[in-house]
């Protein structure tokens, strides 16, 4: 039985080719992808292509585009066995994280991939990323999808989408999942680490929750920063602070008063680490105790991309019971370690 895969092309380097007259990259008609990669016809799956009418650079991908993708997957959920999203690399981890929260009760694979070089380049990484992603997207055992979550595939590695981050603009091996093991690896055999896979609750039905609020601000703390600048910021509902190491910040009375005032004004404060690996442990050092005093939320080992999109999804979302802090601290889609 051939599995049916819906390929959604949003834009990015993977769908570009060089204009040899100008030397610039331009998007090609992605409906002709089978001519660019004839090997796709040899796969044991049927691929249907749905390109964005206007391909977008990944820097232009945001909440509205996340909603479009999630809604399109929802409308076609019963028609296809898996979904592959081709995306520019710069913000792919944001989209993967956002979709992981928006697509509830997922029982089918949703994989994002892209490339560092265009398909037409002689040294391109696009073909391998695309072909292997299609293999993973159509991987079923006993009539059940092996992968039932939002994942990201790049340079032989399959990663949990909301655990991924782009760490290199130069190398083909551009993505890491520093706080969670890889889900699978492509070599001579197509491996998958089943014990690492996420499964939704058995009684949770699939649905697309399109709630995304943009009243979220991300701020990186740096030595010498004037915390008083927070006073001139417009009112925001969630402030994500990326702090030092395992969760420290300046140990001053001004810091405490500023954060306390934000909380009194109704702003939720989420604390995440600037370190790629590891996470926040409030109380480990004295300079983190201020977060307990003001009632801030620990992001533990969540990535910045996942923290931002999780906050955007949860904020003012009527589909969740409990407070924002209670829901943020919950492990919803495998984005934080238990």
TrEMBL record:
Substrate binds at residues 58, 89-90. The lineage of its organism: Bacteria, Pseudomonadati, Bacteroidota, Flavobacteriia, Flavobacteriales. Gene3D superfamilies: 3.40.50.40, L-asparaginase, N-terminal domain (3.40.50.1170). This is L-asparaginase. InterPro entries: Asp/glu_Ase-like_sf, Asparaginase/glutaminase-like, Asparaginase/glutaminase_AS1, Asparaginase/glutaminase_AS2, Asparaginase_C, L-asparaginase_C, L-asparaginase_I, L-asparaginase_N. One of its GO terms (molecular function) is asparaginase activity. Residues 216-318 form the Asparaginase/glutaminase C-terminal domain. CDD domains: L-asparaginase_I. Coiled coil: none annotated. Belongs to the asparaginase 1 family. One of its GO terms (biological process) is amino acid metabolic process. The active site is at residues 13, 89.
């Amino acid at each position: 039985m051939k599995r049916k895969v819906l390929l959604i092309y949003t834009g990015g380097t993977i769908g570009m080719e060089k204009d040899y007259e100008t030397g610039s990259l331009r998007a090609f008609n992605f409906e002709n992808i089978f001519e660019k990669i004839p090997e796709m016809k040899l796969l044991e799956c049927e691929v249907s292509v749905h390109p964005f009418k206007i391909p977008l650079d990944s820097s232009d991908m945001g909440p509205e585009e996340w909603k479009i993708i999630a809604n399109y997957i929802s409308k076609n959920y019963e028609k296809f066995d898996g979904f592959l999203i081709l995306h520019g690399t710069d913000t792919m981890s944001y989209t993967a994280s956002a979709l992981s929260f928006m697509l509830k009760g997922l029982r089918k694979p949703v994989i994002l991939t892209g490339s560092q070089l265009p398909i037409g380049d002689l040294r391109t990484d696009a073909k391998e990323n695309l072909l292997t992603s299609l293999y993973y997207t159509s991987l079923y055992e006993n009539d059940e999808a092996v992968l039932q979550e939002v994942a990201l595939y790049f340079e032989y590695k399959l990663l949990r989408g909301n655990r991924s981050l782009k760490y290199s603009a130069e190398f083909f091996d551009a993505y890491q999942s520093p706080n969670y093991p890889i889900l699978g690896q492509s070599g001579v055999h197509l491996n998958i680490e089943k014990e690492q896979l996420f499964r939704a609750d058995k009684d949770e039905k699939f649905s697309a929750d399109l709630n995304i609020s943009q009243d979220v601000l991300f701020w990186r703390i740096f030595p010498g920063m004037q915390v008083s600048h927070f006073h001139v910021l417009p009112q925001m509902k969630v402030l994500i602070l990326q702090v030092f190491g395992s969760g420290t910040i300046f140990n001053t009375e001004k810091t405490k008063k500023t954060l306390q005032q934000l909380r009194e004004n109704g702003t939720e404060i989420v604390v995440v680490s600037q370190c790629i690996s590891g996470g926040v442990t409030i109380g480990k050092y004295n300079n983190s105790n201020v977060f307990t005093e003001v009632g801030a939320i620990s992001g533990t080992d969540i990535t910045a991309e996942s923290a931002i999109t999780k906050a955007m999804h949860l904020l003012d979302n009527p589909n969740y019971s409990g407070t924002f802090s209670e829901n943020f601290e919950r492990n919803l889609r495998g984005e934080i370690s238990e």
